[in-house]
TrEMBL record:
Record-given protein name: L,D-transpeptidase family protein
Record has Cell wall biogenesis/degradation as a keyword: yes
Keyword presence, Transferase: yes
PROSITE patterns in the cross-refs: LD_TPASE
Active site, renumbered: 190 (proton donor/acceptor), 205 (nucleophile)
L,D-TPase catalytic domain boundaries: 118-229
Protein's organism: Streptomyces yaizuensis
InterPro entries per the UniProt record, alphabetical: LD-transpeptidase, LD_TPept_cat_dom, PGBD-like_sf, Transpep_catalytic_dom
Keywords carried by this UniProt record: Cell shape, Cell wall biogenesis/degradation, Peptidoglycan synthesis, Signal, Transferase
Length: 235
């Protein structure tokens, strides 16, 4: 969530809910309430990948058990509709999780975040990861983050923390932004209580879990640099 509205953003292709709006398997005469809770019997375009991610038999065929497992994942991370359909958005979230796990304890292996700046907070939009390093030494993380959605993207480039407020409240959205550390025109690190994989994303800020935002607050100070790079999937 941003504290100050920034300039216009580039247009993006939204991997939205279009691919998930499929007919649900309903008995004749079902009520709207039943339809809302129904589970789709249709296999999605990413059925095998989703099944494999969830540790199920990757046969590409939708079963009741498959749908139940997919729906549980969707509900946990705020994917709507949570109909158990293995669509583009569900797989996009899972694929991001796979990339985050692969980063291990060497998130800057590719050397994209500067190592000649001393202490710096790095934000990789592509993998939705952030960490703090000092030169080549990893000081904290990497941790999953939730960055700006399409048309509200977290802006890339080298920045500096210019304001910190542990109890900040957004002047635009009137929402709390605990442990806010601003680094670019109202965009800030701050904590949220929702899933880090909750789509479509923030209004530009770098959302973190409360514990990680608290650690960033302790490790960073005004004037420390922040480097944002990459491109968030779906923007």
């Amino acid at each position: 969530m941003r504290g100050v509205r920034g300039p216009g953003r580039r247009a993006g292709v939204v991997l939205g809910l279009t691919g998930m709006l499929v007919p649900l398997t309903l008995a004749i005469g079902s009520t709207p309430a039943a339809a809302a809770s129904a589970c789709t019997a249709k296999a999605g375009p990413h059925q095998k990948q989703v099944e494999k991610f969830l540790g199920r038999k990757a046969d590409g065929k939708q079963s009741t058990a498959d749908c139940t497992a997919i729906r549980a994942f969707q509900k946990k991370h705020g994917v709507s509709p949570a109909a158990g359909y293995a669509g583009p958005l569900t797989w996009q979230i899972m694929n991001t999780m796979i990339q985050q796990k692969a980063a291990g304890k060497n998130p800057n292996k590719a050397g994209k975040c500067p190592v000649n700046k001393g202490r710096i907070a790095c934000v990789d939009l592509t993998r939705q990861l952030s960490w703090i390093q000092d030169g080549k030494k990893l000081k904290f993380g990497p941790v999953p983050v939730r960055t700006g959605k399409d048309k509200f993207e977290t802006r890339t480039g080298l920045k500096k923390i210019y304001m910190r407020n542990i109890d900040h409240v957004s002047s635009i959205y009137d929402v709390k932004m605990p442990y806010a550390q601003f680094f670019d025109g109202g965009q800030a690190f701050h904590s949220v209580t929702k899933s880090m994989w909750n789509p479509p994303g923030s209004a530009g800020c770098v959302n973190m879990t409360p514990s990680n935002a608290k650690s960033y607050w302790s490790l960073l100070k005004k004037g420390d640099e922040v480097y944002v790079y990459g491109r968030k999937p779906g923007t």
